[in-house]
């Protein structure tokens, strides 16, 4: 039974995380863009209101367009889901520290009232404090994750990248001083990239 569960877990991890990551790495995206996108996806993925993170990542990908890699943002958001649940209380406590407000007691009754829509003023205030904690912590999380992911993605891109990372590097690596500037291989490369 345990072996079957471990086999299922490993195959799920490979299908849902490893295979999409390998596809992303093989498409030739720059390591800086991948590191920023992964950091952004995780930062938005730990937003302390459940069910909102996918929309936030979609909006960020639409607004930032070429600055971020949308599949990487979404994959990082997916990976951050269990982290999101574990960081709700720390964001709440951080928001309480920032405002110097009273300590909100976390009881099952308060959680039940929030879920049923009968939230009291205190419960709504706690949600606001958790959001405030996330807003203050988000730039630090984003910057720290970017610095952590950049060397990792540089190594991974070198290892798994199937195409050159930029067209200029590809043209320079193909053309040599003996070939004319408009050689057939250079023209094929330009046509293939379009």
TrEMBL record:
Keyword tags: Membrane, Transmembrane, Transmembrane helix
DUF2062 domain sequence ranges: 21-156
One Pfam family recorded for the sequence: DUF2062
Keyword RNA-binding: no
Membrane-spanning intervals of the chain: 36-63, 127-149
Presence of the UniProt keyword Nucleotide-binding in the record: no
Record-linked InterPro entries: DUF2062
PANTHER family documented for this protein: E3 UBIQUITIN-PROTEIN LIGASE
Protein name, as recorded: DUF2062 domain-containing protein
The species this protein was found in: Sesamum alatum
């Amino acid at each position: 039974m345990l072996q079957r569960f471990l086999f299922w877990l490993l195959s799920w991890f490979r299908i849902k995380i490893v295979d999409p990551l390998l596809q992303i790495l093989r498409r030739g995206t720059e390591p800086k863009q991948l590191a920023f996108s992964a950091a952004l996806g995780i930062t938005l993925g730990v937003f302390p209101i459940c069910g909102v993170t996918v929309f936030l990542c979609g909006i960020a990908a639409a607004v930032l367009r070429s600055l971020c890699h949308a599949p990487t943002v979404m994959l990082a958001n997916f990976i951050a889901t269990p982290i999101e649940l574990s960081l709700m209380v720390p964001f709440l406590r951080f928001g309480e520290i920032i405002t110097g407000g009273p300590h909100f007691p976390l009881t099952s009754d308060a959680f039940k009232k929030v879920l049923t829509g009968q939230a009291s003023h205190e419960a709504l205030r706690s949600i606001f404090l958790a959001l405030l904690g996330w807003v203050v912590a988000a730039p630090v999380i984003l910057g720290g994750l970017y610095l952590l992911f950049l060397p990792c993605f540089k190594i991974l891109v070198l290892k798994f990248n199937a195409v050159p990372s930029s067209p200029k590097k590809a043209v320079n690596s193909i053309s040599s001083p003996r070939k004319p500037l408009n050689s057939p291989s250079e023209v094929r490369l330009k046509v293939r990239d379009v």
